[in-house]
Amino acid sequence: MTAPDINCNSTAWDTASRDASNRRVHSERGHRRAPRRLRSPWWCCLLLLGCLCAVHVSQVTGQDEVVGKPIISHSDLTVYQADDGTIKPIQSLDDWSKRRSQIIAGAEAAMGKLPAPDTQADFDVHVDEDVSIGDVRRLMMTIAVGKSDRLPLDLYLPKGVADRVDVRDIFLAGSANQLPAIIALHPTGAAGKRIVAGEGGRPGRQYAIELAQRGYVVIAPDYPSFGAYADYDFGGDGYDSGTMKGIVNHRRCVDLLSQLPFVDANRIGAIGHSLGGHNAIFLGVFDQRVKLVVSSCGWCPFHDYYGGDLTGWTSDRYMPRLRDRFHLNPDEVPFDFYELIAALAPRTFVSVSPLRDSNFDIAGVRKAMPVAGGVYSLWGVPNELILITPDCEHDFPTETRQQAYDVIDRVLQHNCSLKTPLFGTDG
Q1: How far is CA 155 from CA 142, 180, 233, 326, 354, in A?
Q2: Domain-wise residue ranges, the chain
Q3: Which of 131, 356, 359, 390 has the most neighbouring CB atoms within 10 Å?
Q4: Maximal C-alpha separation, the chain
Q5: Nearest-CA neighbor of 104 among 305, 312, 287?
Q6: Which residue spans within 146-210 are E strands per DSSP?
Q7: How far is CA 177 from CA 138, 161, 214, 411, 415, in A?
Q8: How far apart (Å, rounded) are the C-alpha atoms in residues 40 and 71?
Q9: pLDDT at res. 64
């Protein structure tokens, strides 16, 4: 990989030279000597009242929090909190696994608890439409998620397997060679999953159909409140956030791909732009079956998101707890993207972060990538953390998508001779 380059080049962050092992956090806790005895029972009452008012645990996150602020800074990935509450340096992968568990707990404090997966549940596949787009076949379908919900999605079948699938039972189709697969998550827009088919009215978002043309099995679900999911009821679904519902749905997509006989369950990746960009990160963090994540215009640390104004993250489709429990204060939020990106290690992460993206500040991304890079170096895979910085606004241009596809081909071990995206250019 080349050295970091501001001009749109794919770069790998190797932060070993920063000698992260020498960075430490020293927890300083002030102690005051208690009086030998209390001279009045009123002092006892006042002392007890003061203790009750002063100590505030804002949320159970796997690590103690005082006055709403986590003990460990989200931007310091060199330490973890031991079982006895002390802060210790991360010196091994076992140490990192403890910090990663604390990161997951922090994310769940904001998103809600991840339900235990029911991998044996019947998908109850309903195919509603079967069309051909060139050599690619697209099945519009719904699958069961939980006891009462059905997830609308498109399943793209590339040339070579398209003719083998019987819509009456997609689990019977065989293939001489199992293919890699991609979960393609769409950005914000009424068209939902069809945006990633190039039908959303904006260029640069058609990565589902392009990857299918390159030979990948691709699944593109609707996110709640978009597409065929437009009337989704967040208030009655039993989830603490739309974000967690999205994670559950997208994990269900991984379940489906893993059971298709023509898919190699060990070669599954995720890609998304904007809304789909951070949903791809969330999926990768909570599902380690996903071997690669590509996030276009999907993230920056919370302090760098519109100057720390988290209002945009608090609608029902995202994380209302950031408002209701954590007061729209980035200092109180129990996780941040420094940690989520590091939690993807050692799997490949590609961040497409344009220089002029008004949603997710490139300065925040550049600040966070080397921090996560310390964890990738601990794993011995610094080159699997990749930053691409096109000179554009909130977009996913053709050349940049091609760079991302090349990384996907490498990581998922797919020999693709096609080097031109389906639509050639973005207008």
Answers
A1: 10, 13, 24, 38, 29
A2: 126-412
A3: 390
A4: 88
A5: 287
A6: 149-157, 179-185
A7: 20, 9, 15, 17, 12
A8: 35
A9: 38
Per the CB < 8 A criterion, the answer to whether 72 and 81 are in contact is yes
Q: How big is the CA angle at 104 (ends 98 and 108), to the nearest 5 degrees?
A: 145
DSSP states along 351-419: EE--TT-SSS-HHHHHHHHHHHHHHHHHHT-GGGEEEE--SSSS---HHHHHHHHHHHHHHTT------
pTM above 0.70, yes or no: yes
Q: Which amino acid is at 292?
A: L
**What are the pLDDT digits (tens) for 217-226?**
999 999 999 9
User: Which residue carries 């083998």 as its tokens?
Assistant: 164
Write out pLDDT tens, residues 313-344.
Answer: 999 999 999 999 999 999 999 999 999 999 99
Which tens digit of pLDDT belongs to each residue from 386-424?
A: 999 999 999 999 999 999 999 999 999 999 866 455 444
Contact in structure between 196 and 391 (CB atoms under 8 Å):
no
What's the pLDDT score for residue 12? 52
Closest CA to 119 of 283, 245, 254: 254
Instruction: Write the pLDDT tens digit of every residue in 233-268.
Output: 999 999 999 999 999 999 999 999 999 999 999 999
Residue with tokens 């995720």: 270
Q: How far is CA 377 from each of CA 22, 138, 302, 400, rounded to the nearest angstrom?
A: 14, 40, 24, 25
Residue 388: strand pairing partners? 352
Residue 363, Cβ neighbours under 10 Å: how many? 12
Task: State the CATH architecture for 126-412.
Answer: 3-Layer(aba) Sandwich (3.40)
Whether residue 127 has pLDDT greater than 60:
yes
Calculate the alpha carbon distances from 112 to 107, 115, 164, 253, 339 in Å: 8, 9, 40, 20, 17
Cα-based distances in Å from 427 to 195, 202, 205, 274, 355: 15, 9, 12, 20, 21
